[in-house]
Amino acid sequence: MSVAPSFQANAHPVDPFGIIAPQLAALDAFMKAQAAQFEPEIRDMAGYCLEASGKRLRPALVFFSGWEFGGRVDESLVRAAAVVEMVHLATLVHDDIMDRAELRRGRLTASRKFGPDAAVLLGDALFSQALHIASQFPTAEVCRLVSASTRRVCSGEIMQTLRRRDFNVTLADYRRMIDLKTAELFRTSCYLGAMLSHQTSGFADAADKFGHHLGIAYQIYDDLVDFVGEEKNIGKTLGTDLATGKLTLPLMLLLDRIPVDERARLIADMREGHSPGLATSQQRMHQLGIGAAVVQSINDELSIALESILPFSSAPAAPLLKELASLLSRQVASLPTSVVSPA
Amino acid sequence: MSVAPSFQANAHPVDPFGIIAPQLAALDAFMKAQAAQFEPEIRDMAGYCLEASGKRLRPALVFFSGWEFGGRVDESLVRAAAVVEMVHLATLVHDDIMDRAELRRGRLTASRKFGPDAAVLLGDALFSQALHIASQFPTAEVCRLVSASTRRVCSGEIMQTLRRRDFNVTLADYRRMIDLKTAELFRTSCYLGAMLSHQTSGFADAADKFGHHLGIAYQIYDDLVDFVGEEKNIGKTLGTDLATGKLTLPLMLLLDRIPVDERARLIADMREGHSPGLATSQQRMHQLGIGAAVVQSINDELSIALESILPFSSAPAAPLLKELASLLSRQVASLPTSVVSPA
Predict the structure, then answer these.
(1) ipTM of this predicted structure
(2) N or C: which end of chain B has fewer CB within 10 A?
(3) Are the Cβ atoms of B94 and A42 closer than 8 angstroms?
(4) Domain ranges, ordered by start, for chain A
(5) Would you tell me which CATH number, out of the four given (1.10.3720.10, 1.20.900.10, 1.10.600.10, 3.40.30.10), belongs to the domain B21-340?
(6) Has UniProt tagged this entry with the keyword Transferase (chains A, B) (predicted)?
(7) Which of A81, A82, A304 has its CA nearest to residue A193?
């Protein structure tokens, strides 16, 4: 049985061919050792958060963008990967407080395990330690990039939090939110990888742009998956965005394309936290060609991402970044045709 | 009517003689300009937090420790002062979420004004921006010091949060908590001031030690004031620590010195969030000499602080730091004699 490479689930699905397996293993070891860097009183709590091994998507961007022929494990790339991953983990700890989430990656969230008050502070400690690792580079540039990036990620999250159940969110607002909350750290990961490995002049900026558009594509894909749900349990995730009143691209397009009275009913339902009939929604999405339109948006972003590294096709990192974009593209193509194919 | 110089209330009470008035004015201008550094979407919220001008205690430590003959306004000291103040403001934003506080400095807390979810993220953005300012120094050293300090401050806060209503907290635990949550940023402020102004060799370490012990003294004083309350409204603050079950030195000594049955009653009352009779508590404190013992602890710390800078009496910063310790000492001496004089 063949398993299609995937951006989701399992260990290191971003590296289906094991190209950066030694780098990801070095990262795991580095992250594990980080727990000891926290004060003894919070070491176990910090360790709990660091253990939760996710998709390692941002570290993979660092390693791929910083790839050199020979593929040696570069200590500075491992450190940069740890920085972006720890920033990401810190945002997850705080996100889970806001979402009142019970579980993440099959384990209790920090907020549920240690209480929301401790989780606020624990997230802060993770942020601080991420910046502390960043400050161990000889120049302050990594700190400068990562601190600004972190601030922008938080700004995006604040926008999203404040605009929940706000049905006046425009496509430009949505774009700006995902630019900040997701694409920002993607692009910084790519830039850091390219910069620290001293790639060809101009490649770092190209990788930055690649990361930016890959990040937007990824977030739209993530929002689509959340909306159309998983194949086996299609209703499970549909409720999530509707219940929290989070306006994402599929939902915005749906609201935009249905008749006025249907729109009013759907908004009223969402305001009260009711999910509309799932089968109906999916059918409407298909009838109105929304899944296909969302897929088109994702592919448009992937095209811009790929275009940006086109002039650097001889850079060792280029084919790996290209493969990463293809991986997401294949993932998108494997979504249920009933949802994403044109009506 | 003369107003005694004070660590509390009014603008810049830490500088009653106006020695660092130009520096504090430059800091105010710098902080005000910082709002524009945040993303447009959160600029007003960040500005709201930055406007809340507090005692500027940590910036004063930077300026005093970095004082040079002539007293010019050094841009790097202003920047360092802004970093420690912004870290402090970020911790306050998060503290107020945990304490469910309504007001701070006479205005709604960020948590009340923008909601606790947004306040979590806003605090994160303030932390990030503090580190971003730190990263604008030519070397990564300021970032390195401040990120580690921030992590330790958070660790102290976590300890305190997790040990609320834990009546097994020992004096060593209390000491460790205030070391981390308060003394840490005091000592970093002093170290940064001395380091950035290139004072005499060895002075930065001495200033660090001074700041550490001044910070402990200040926190014990703050806990004493919170316990004995203000002269005019002595009951107002007594309830605070009791209600949140926060064990501070005065309370620990009281619990330690009262008879077993009285202790059991007091603990039961606190567990249920009842304040014991105030008059009784104060009388007991006086009878048992607790106020006097706490004052002794504060003065002991101030002595160690002063001792640490004794070898540097010719350093321009030394008399200013000495004056700052005297200021706290006078403040302590002005507490109601019914509370702090020996029984």
Answers:
(1) 0.92
(2) N
(3) no
(4) 8-136, 154-343
(5) 1.10.600.10
(6) yes
(7) A81
Instruction: Tell the residue number behind the tokens 């570290």, with chain if given.
Output: A59
Q: What is the pLDDT of residues A139-166, one digit of tens each?
A: 899 999 999 999 999 999 999 999 988 9
Place of tokens 């014991």: B276
- CATH number of the structural domain A8-136: 1.10.600.10
Tens digit of pLDDT for each residue in A89-113?
A: 999 999 999 888 888 888 999 999 9
Q: Does A125 touch chain B (CB under 8 A)?
A: yes
The correct answer on CATH 1.10.600.10 for the domain covering A154-343 is yes
**Cβ neighbours of B166 in A, within 8 Å:** none
Q: Range with the lowest mean pLDDT among A20-24, A162-166, A278-282?
A: A278-282
Query: B80 CA to chain A: closest CA distance, Å?
Result: 15
In the structure, how many helices (H) and strands (E) does chain A have? 17, 2
Residue among B43, B99, B151 with most chain A CBs within 10 A, to mutate: B151
DSSP code per residue over A28-89: HHHHHHHGGGS-GGGHHHHHHHHH-----HHHHHHHHHT--TT----HHHHHHHHHHHHHHH
The total of other beta-carbon atoms located within 10 Å of residue B267's CB is 14
Which range has highest mean pLDDT (A11-25, A329-343, B96-110, B294-308)?
B294-308
Distance CA B299, CA B310 (A): 16
